[in-house]
Amino acid sequence: MRAWNKTDSSILMILLLAAVALGWYYPSIPTEVPSHYGLNGKVDALSPKAFLWELYGILVSLQLILYFVGKINPRFYNYPFEIREENRELVLRATFRLLNELRIFILLLFLLIIGFSLFSMERIPIWFLLVTVLVPILLTIKGIILIYKANKPN
């Protein structure tokens, strides 16, 4: 199990700042905000502004889930190889790194989505759609490679 670290503190601070900012701007937000964008980047659904708090709740829930996944006893992780005493520390470090990178990506992704809705953007850039799909795939592949490398004897 891992201890509280700087990444956890940073994520908590950003979550709190996001809640304060959302609360601060909430009265000036239009009654309906974009809640879905099509593949062409244009708004294709609107929701009441309370939807922004729902998005924030989903963000906090995902952060908590990924935080507690890191707290689970590592013997319950489904590694495709045996965890031995000599590889244990390196494999766990690579695993926690992957979890932290995914947590940071999810945090940034949701903050951007909330920002797009908050400022009622009529269109989101296509690069955002590509990043949304490619970055988690690349982070996961990189994490798996690092976990496998950590398993190999020196």
From TrEMBL:
<dbReference type="InterPro" id="IPR012867">
    <property type="entry name" value="DUF1648"/>
</dbReference>
<feature type="transmembrane region" description="Helical">
    <location>
        <begin position="102"/>
        <end position="120"/>
    </location>
</feature>
<keyword id="KW-1133">Transmembrane helix</keyword>
<feature type="domain" description="DUF1648">
    <location>
        <begin position="13"/>
        <end position="58"/>
    </location>
</feature>
<keyword id="KW-0472">Membrane</keyword>
<feature type="transmembrane region" description="Helical">
    <location>
        <begin position="12"/>
        <end position="30"/>
    </location>
</feature>
<keyword id="KW-0812">Transmembrane</keyword>
<feature type="transmembrane region" description="Helical">
    <location>
        <begin position="126"/>
        <end position="148"/>
    </location>
</feature>
<dbReference type="Pfam" id="PF07853">
    <property type="entry name" value="DUF1648"/>
</dbReference>
<protein>
    <recommendedName>
        <fullName>DUF1648 domain-containing protein</fullName>
    </recommendedName>
</protein>
<feature type="transmembrane region" description="Helical">
    <location>
        <begin position="50"/>
        <end position="69"/>
    </location>
</feature>
